[in-house]
């Protein structure tokens, strides 16, 4: 077995919990202030550690704290009992690279020339959240087994980057990266606070959980599981004809495997949380738990992610906990976005920083005290997707209504057809042989989705019957698009990234090489192929 474990020195979910309050599960729990109101000092000695824990492809509705019927997240649910739980948090994209770039910069992917497309990455001209923490005396660590988060593209501002990719194991690495992170933390002095971004690859496909976690939710293991990438995606029309879908055994096995991987990650998070509580017992910790995007299971005809921007692809958990300012669970019903994390965290900790954000600084302290402090009512939540060999479009959400505007649109049957030739299409695209619609150009398809009884955009509705809302959303869309900068092409970004990789020759470590098949041929590591995008 060959493993890549990168330790790089560089130069240069969501759960929030505050002071204990009495009351129920809403932002109007109580208006009484707490004696433990957070009063963060800017002294490095007094600043809390900050851990952002991202679980890849985690839908909010598969988390126990969000009402899921399976016990997938017992530990996260325990944290949520004393935390702010955001019930309407949305990812900035359904593609990891675009979404994480937004989290790191506080800007939507299309707000910078670098953060969209196959080679989406952090804009070198924009200061990242890691850089701000480093400037304020923090030790900054990026730790991930998500192959798409390459150090050259996402390591800016982190003093230490641990990038773990295993060619022969695409699931079940959670404990390995937690152990690696804990080892690194134990070697650091506690006189400086920590800023840690930890990104778990599971439960990203191919959904290969250990049997023990699968059997938490099933009496037996299904004997003939379908592989999502090369069996389900490529053959979906045929499978649908055979009855593949909710209730059908092969489909239910797919969801069970996804849920079992969520449970595996939950166990790893428990190990991390309990260990950090011991290793850093003399320092407060701000914990943020969230996801980069969701996952589709035929709700709109297709599977996986990074194809659409429907609710199941972008509705994510968001939980924040700031010990020792513990509190009862407080549900935050405001519509918020991943771009809000950067301004919210630095504002909450009183860190000096002045720059343009698309996100807003959420009133975390006030919400932790149980005060009623709703966000501005005219706000629109944006999610974007610019994958030229797949789909290109924008989602606007306001008051539960979702407007979807597509510059390139595929039916679910076409998604299956395109999925079978992503490698070929991507090669043509990077050779300049495949034309692609320009982001924010004239839409070829639009949809309007109205809120259900819980305020979530789930009900398809006729744009013609809701002309007033449609006109407002189109006006917002035009205004949004008018402010987008000229994008760097994926070809330009790939060339620069490849040059950086050549300059930084990262050593690889063999772990359990005896498990490697002698017939296996070595090939250049392609993170997107490894992640199943191609």
Task: Describe the protein.
The two termini are 22 Å apart. The strands form 4 sheets. The chain has an 8-stranded mixed β-sheet, sandwiched between helices. It has one domain (2-33, 47-530): Alkaline Phosphatase, subunit A. The longest helix has 31 residues, at 249-279. The chain is α/β, with parallel strands linked by helices. 29% of the residues lie in helices and 20% in strands. It is globular. The model is unreliable at 1-19, 21-40 and 506-521 (pLDDT under 50).
Short description:
The protein has 534 residues and is α/β, with parallel strands linked by helices.
Helices and strands, with pairings:
Elements: E1 2-9, E2 15-16, E3 49-55, H1 74-80, E4 84-90, H2 96-105, H3 129-135, E5 139-144, H4 151-154, E6 160-166, H5 174-187, E7 194-200, H6 211-214, H7 228-232, H8 236-241, H9 249-279, E8 285-291, E9 296-297, E10 303-304, H10 311-314, E11 315-316, E12 318-323, E13 330-337, H11 341-348, H12 364-368, E14 381-386, E15 392-398, E16 401-408, H13 412-419, H14 422-430, E17 445-451, E18 457-461, H15 467-482, H16 490-503, E19 509-510, H17 527-530
Parallel strand pairs: 3-7, 3-8, 4-13, 5-6, 5-7
Antiparallel strand pairs: 1-6, 1-19, 2-4, 4-11, 8-12, 9-10, 14-15, 15-16, 16-17, 17-18
Helix pairs in contact: 5-9
Percentage of residues assigned to helices: 25-40%
Radius of gyration: 22 Å
Instruction: Examine the coordinates and then state which fold CATH places here, giving the name of the CATH topology.
Output: Alkaline Phosphatase, subunit A
Strand content range = 15-25%
- Main-sheet strand order equals 12-8-3-7-5-6-1-19
Under the CATH scheme, which class? Alpha Beta
Task: Give the end-to-end Cα distance, rounded to a whole number of Å.
Answer: 22 Å
CATH architecture, please?
Answer: 3-Layer(aba) Sandwich
CATH superfamily, by name, is Alkaline Phosphatase, subunit A
Which geometry do the CA atoms define? Answer: globular
**Count of structural domains:** 1
Q: What is the tally of helical segments?
A: 17
